[in-house]
Amino acid sequence: MQPMNTLLLILFTLLLLTACNSQPLPSAERPAQSLVLENDKLRVAMRAPQGWTSLEDDRHLILVEKPNPINANGLLEGLIVHIWMPTLEDLLEINFTPTSSASELLQQIVELPLVTANAVASTPQAFQASGYDGAYYTLNSGDGNVTFVLMLKYQDSNFVAFNVSTQLKQLERIPQGLVQVLGGMTFNGVPLDTAWVARLPSVLYVPSFKTEAAMEASPASP
Length: 222
Hints:
Elements: H1 3-12, H2 14-20, E1 35-38, E2 43-46, E3 53-56, E4 60-64, E5 80-84, H3 102-110, H4 113-116, E6 120-121, E7 125-129, E8 132-140, E9 145-155, E10 158-167, H5 174-182, E11 186-187, E12 190-191, H6 212-217
Antiparallel strand pairs: 1-2, 2-11, 3-4, 4-5, 5-10, 6-8, 7-8, 8-9, 9-10, 11-12
């Protein structure tokens, strides 16, 4: 997978939305088994929440809450969560080093023309999650849907990325969805504590969508 395609997947989960359209998804193929992502230093294991569908390959996990994830108006139904571990090759588009923090990484991502040409991103917020360096931002592409982008740093150049997408009107469900998805997750066998989710703002900030001309004529959203 080329770096540009991977960044598109991080920010918009376009591959998912294209593949799913408005048809019911098949049942999860491995509902009773662990879903796993791993490289030579990190093994991320979890189970799909009850009733959710899981789609996976060797690099990505996608969890879908509703059988029909996109309605006739192009709005998401329920939550869609995309989890993956970026590699150094995926990060060639930005100035990345093993000492880079999660917030530094996301700050560079939200400044890419790929992002600013199609959506409006909030300023990445740094925080600690279950003892790991983390950061997040929200993304508004102006179509009535919103994505919460979360990055956790395990060590050195090992990051785990999470996209949680839903309708803007269901924004308040994102923290609940994070608890459902992360509750049974382990990093190298160590459970990922979800108590940090309660420290997120009660209402996540989502920047207002502006056209490209409006963005050029006005300061960036905070």
